[in-house]
Specification:
Helix content: 25-40%
CATH superfamily: Nucleoside Triphosphate Pyrophosphohydrolase
Radius of gyration: 18 Å
Strand content: 25-35%
Largest sheet: 8 strands, mixed
Number of helices: 8
CATH architecture: Alpha-Beta Complex
Number of strands: 14
Order of helices and strands: EEEEEHHEHHHEEEEHHHEEEE
CATH topology: Nucleoside Triphosphate Pyrophosphohydrolase
Shape: globular
Number of domains: 1
Structural class: alpha+beta
Length: 268
């Protein structure tokens, strides 16, 4: 049997300036213990690309130079569109945040997303109902995905030898004005806005489970004093956007993760 191929996936790091002015806060979701991947862990919203993500009508999105994104994410134009749309779709499904505008160009609000059709489409996405095609819902409401609100933050690949492998692009965004994050009732059991350092301290103290790639991304985010400085760094290409694939090593019979740049192995 050959090596399990890593499936294309997209994750969104939702950030905001802390309300007390004390740095950045990031949205973390707690996955259900029975989830197929990272059960019980604190994660960023995200998931794998669906083929329909690559087929979104051009009238339903804007703000993305697909050639530039394709080069940055190591794929073609179709693959780039799929990753960006999957990022927005999964974030909507899991956190209730939709990076989109109304037909008049104003941002979609939480009131819009409290409408019966929005609640139902989100429920269908969360339950993986194959009959649910959110593209029809977007078109019916005239919503346009604002792909320009996304910035490439990092790129991580699950180590070889794992049962489930993902080739994940981490994208950074802020919550649109007029929206409030609210987790789903399927895969996610809780959510929190927290400073990256606080999440890392909770992991170290055994109070939370944060898997290795999430920890690395939180540590990188903790270097910035506010959202504007993160966005400037992304625009200037000053963040690590390399394709990083750690390896799993055994130490005293325990599986550990080794970063390709070296350094001491860490717990998975």
């Amino acid at each position: 049997m050959g090596e399990q191929r890593a499936v294309d996936a997209a994750t969104v790091v939702l950030v905001r300036d802390a309300v007390d002015g004390g740095g950045i806060e990031v949205l973390l979701l707690e996955r259900h213990l029975d989830s197929d991947f990272a059960g019980g862990a604190l994660v960023f919203p995200g998931g794998k690309v669906d083929e329909r993500d690559t087929q979104l009508d051009p009238a339903r999105w804007r703000g993305a130079d697909l050639d530039r994104w394709a080069a940055a994410m190591g794929t073609g134009r179709t693959g780039a569109l799929g990753l960006l749309v999957a990022a927005v779709r999964e974030t909507f499904e899991e956190s209730g945040v939709l990076l989109a505008s109304r037909p008049d160009g104003s941002p979609v609000t939480s009131d819009d997303l409290a409408a019966d059709d929005a609640v139902e489409i989100r429920r269908g996405l969360a339950t993986r109902d194959e009959d649910v095609d959110w593209r029809l819902w977007l078109a019916a409401n005239g919503y346009v995905l604002e792909l320009g609100e996304l910035g490439l933050w990092s790129w991580w690949v699950t180590p070889e030898g794992q049962k489930r492998r993902f080739d994940t692009r981490f994208l950074l965004a802020t919550v649109p004005p007029g929206q409030v994050a609210q987790h789903d009732a399927q895969e996610i059991t809780a959510m929190r806005w927290t400073r990256p350092a606080d999440a890392l301290r909770a992991q170290a103290a055994g109070e939370a489970t944060v898997i290795y790639p999430t920890r690395c991304n939180l540590a990188a985010l903790d270097r910035f004093r506010d959202v504007a400085s993160v966005q400037r760094a992304i625009a200037a290409g000053e963040v690590d956007q390399r394709r990083i694939q750690p390896t799993v090593v055994k130490m005293d019979g325990r599986a550990m993760v080794q970063h390709p740049d070296g350094g001491p192995p860490e717990p998975v």
